[in-house]
Amino acid sequence: MEDRALTITEHLGELRKRIIYILICVLLLSAVAYSFIDEILKFVTDAGRIEELVFINPTEAFFVIVKLSILAGVLASMPFILFHVWKYIGVGLKKHERKYLIYFGPLSYVLFIIGAAFAFRSVLPLGIRFLLSFSKENISPMITLNAYVSFLTKMVMAFGLMFELPLVILFLSKIGLVTPETLKKGRRYAIVGIFIIAALLTPPDVVSQIMLAVPILLLYEIGIWICISVTKKRNRKLELQEAVHEV
Question: In 3D, which of 190, 241, 238 has the Cα closest to residue 216?
Answer without folding.
Answer: 190
